[in-house]
């Protein structure tokens, strides 16, 4: 049951297997435990991995099972997972299963759903894989530092009857702030990051290494599962001549479609499942570029067609994924909640309520706070709900970003339909668990509060969340 540590030759392995995190992890398809659950072990502790190519030194990180990303946990829809977590860090942590609809006690939020896992401590998470899709796990404690140091991994729940593809590939994207020594810059939760766009880095990795090439075959169909594990970086991936077909967002199936402008956008914590038909000529090379930060195009990786062609025309296999068992919101009878996000630099916020008392911006900043939801900046452990919902009722969150920065807004324990953006209906009204809001954006989402418990509602940029931008939604 215990997972092997990765060896220093990992870079060499990765060069051949980029994209096949599962090959490295040794975590997939473990034997069934006596009671029928799929049982995994995650040991959390320091490790060294080769992020930058040699001769750069290995980077000291924190990791799950010594791997970066953590092992790909892969089960089939309807199965039960049991994950035995052991913390060998010098500080407490928890594991949150992002996007998974699970019992509240398994949600991994310290002081809200469980006690922190102390150094040397253990916690067993156990839940059913209700929805098929692309999910991930990460700590929910001191996240600005713990995730930036490398604590994250993919959680893939396969459909009972998965659509046919030639290869099913996971790319976990991250954005690191590395010094020339290839070590992580230890300025976590820096004042500028808190009050601006969060911890934006200088080095993008795919599955824990700076990628160079990704080998493909003409004619093959790839399911590419993208996970944005970066603290703060948004991606807008331009796949060149390859027209990406989006088949799922945040793990939930969506009507297959090519995104506007051909660009695949992922805010922090978001996932996109793509179907890619690799139809460029054999021998060619095409580039994947991140164009989110206009004028600073970032070359991510090259697709290299250097192997035998597989076929000359794309296969005619179906693209659509089977729906997950979500309850459709009753929008006509919904309760509406107006939600504002304020704060940060250049936002003109005068101040906010902190523990029930009015604080001006200057005194907030002294307390490490810079953001508010509905005029309240969360400080320390949030326990009191900002809103209480009756189980089974539909709610619309009418959210306005009154700040000068992007915010990926995330709700635990549920998925919501994104209804509108700036008054325009959103195409396909996708189910998501995280929605990216640009400055001044107004977004409406709807969901049925069908999962009882206290659930976090927060900006997924940990520098913003830990500086006040979080709250609790109670479902009773
Ligand atoms: Cu990805 Cu509150 O979590
Ligand atoms: Cu934010």
Query: What global shape is seen?
Result: globular
In this structure, how is the largest beta sheet organized? 7 strands, mixed
The helicity comes to under 10%
Bound molecules: CU-O-CU linkage, copper (II) ion
Strand percentage: 35-45%
Number of DSSP E strands: 33
Organism: Dichotomicrobium thermohalophilum
Signal peptide: 1-33
Keywords: Metal-binding, Oxidoreductase, Signal
Domain Plastocyanin-like: 49-160, 168-280, 381-475
Sum this structure up briefly.
This is FtsP/CotA-like multicopper oxidase with cupredoxin domain. This protein is 7% helix and 39% strand.
Report on the structure:
The protein is mostly beta strands. The protein has 3 domains: 10-158, Immunoglobulin-like (Sandwich), CATH 2.60.40; 168-304, Immunoglobulin-like (Sandwich), CATH 2.60.40.420; 331-475, Immunoglobulin-like, CATH 2.60.40. The chain has 6 helices and 33 strands. It has helices at residues 10-17, 21-25, 143-146, 191-195, 361-366, 462-465, and strands at 38-49, 59-64, 73-76, 80-87, 96-98, 122-128, 133-138, 153-158, 167-176, 203-206, 213-215, 221-228, 235-238, 245-249, 252-257, 263-266, 271-277, 285-290, 298-304, 335-343, 351-354, 357-360, 371-373, 387-389, 394-401, 407-411, 416-421, 424-425, 431-432, 434-437, 442-448, 453-459, 470-475. Strands 20, 23, 25, 27, 28, 29 and 31 form a 7-stranded mixed β-sheet that branches. Strands 10-9-12-17-14-15 form a 6-stranded mixed β-sheet, with no helix packed on it. The longest helix is centred in the N-terminal third of the chain and has 8 residues, at 10-17. The radius of gyration is 21 Å and the shape is globular. The model is unreliable at 1-27 (pLDDT under 50). The structure holds CU-O-CU linkage (C2O) and copper (II) ion. Copper (II) ion is lined by residues 407, 459, 461, 464, 469.
